[in-house]
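[Discussion] Sanity-checking designs against the backbone

I'm trying to build intuition for which residues belong where. Below is a structure token string of 339 positions. I'd appreciate it if someone posts a full sequence so I can compare it with mine line by line.
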């Protein structure tokens, strides 16, 4: 079948057999995410027209103001995943603790947990800049038949069985991996169907874009400052272009298509970094590696980090392999010179 006409539903069924634990649950799970994404997309697209903009008046677990749309997206994804009897637990960036799900007819028989950032970049909604949803899926590690515990969620990223994001932009796309490459599907809003539009997405080995909030330059570690200066030098194929939307899903998406590096280092303002390991960095790192890219905290592979807590933050560098290698070189040189 020509991929130009293949729907997400058809793609999921066709590729189900390639998935190691194929019993249909993962397909149902991706389908639930697809459904919730369509509803959230509808709300995001009309956000300018209705009173769904602005703050909900609460702060989320990380102390940031919650946008009304954040709360809506959070509820939508949690309800859609809970009601379909597929997952045994959900952790959301918007919730303080994880949610254990026990469906009525089965006693904790489900095998998967989902971690989700329901609306990444939501402070951009008011100004019509793309936002996104990020999701990450693991098989539980505690025995089936018992309620989930924190250890089901605190798994290193390399244990992920699926991850992806939805970008709500000029067109709405769902991009995901189950460990066999990365594929992107674009929503046809007229009929509400996602079609395979970007098969086998892959980072160019070298890119010419660097994405970082340069306003924080003064607070960055020395190695990062030196790498940014390297990006700006006139030499070889440099200077690189600076492109930073401030909506991680959008920055990541562009860099994967065009080649580039996304950086959110730790700083003197945010000693641990700002991005969350479980909801943002792990899923994006899994996608990056599946698309021949690389993701690092500056010294170590993101997917090898053993999480300590649900809302843990880490420095994050992700993108075209050679660019991330070069960044690590600067970080390691700096570390060596400090000893």
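Best answer:
Here's mine. Compare freely.
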């Amino acid at each position: 079948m020509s991929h130009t006409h293949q729907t997400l539903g058809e793609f999921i069924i066709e590729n189900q057999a390639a998935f190691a634990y194929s019993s249909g649950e993962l397909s149902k799970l991706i389908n639930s995410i697809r459904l919730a994404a369509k509803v959230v997309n509808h709300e995001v697209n009309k956000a300018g027209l209705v009173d769904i903009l602005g703050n909900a008046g609460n702060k989320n677990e990380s102390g940031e103001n919650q946008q009304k749309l954040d709360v809506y997206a959070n509820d939508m994804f949690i309800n859609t995943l809970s009601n379909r009897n597929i997952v045994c637990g959900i952790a959301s960036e918007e919730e303080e603790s994880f949610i254990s799900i026990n469906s009525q007819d089965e006693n904790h028989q489900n095998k998967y947990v989902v971690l989700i950032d329901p609306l990444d970049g939501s402070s951009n909604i008011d100004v019509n800049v793309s936002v996104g949803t990020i999701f990450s899926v693991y098989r539980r590690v505690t025995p089936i038949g018992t309620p989930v515990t924190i250890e089901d969620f605190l798994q290193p990223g390399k244990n992920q069985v699926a991850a992806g994001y939805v970008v709500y932009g000029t067109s709405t796309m769902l991009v995901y991996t189950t460990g066999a490459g990365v594929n992107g599907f674009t929503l046809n809003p007229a009929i509400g169907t996602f079609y395979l539009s970007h098969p086998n997405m892959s980072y160019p080995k070298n890119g010419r874009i660097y994405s970082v909030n340069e306003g924080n330059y003064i607070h960055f570690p020395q190695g990062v400052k030196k790498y940014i200066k390297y990006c700006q030098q006139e030499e070889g194929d440099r200077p690189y272009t600076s492109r930073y939307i401030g909506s991680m899903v959008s920055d990541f998406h562009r860099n994967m298509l065009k080649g580039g590096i996304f950086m959110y280092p730790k700083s003197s303002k945010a000693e641990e970094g700002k991005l969350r390991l479980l909801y943002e960095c792990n899923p994006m790192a899994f996608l990056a590696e599946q698309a021949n890219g690389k993701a690092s905290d500056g010294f170590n592979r993101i997917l090898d980090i053993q999480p300590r807590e649900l809302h843990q933050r880490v420095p994050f560098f992700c993108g075209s392999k050679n660019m991330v290698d070069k960044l690590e070189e600067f970080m390691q040189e700096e570390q060596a010179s400090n000893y």
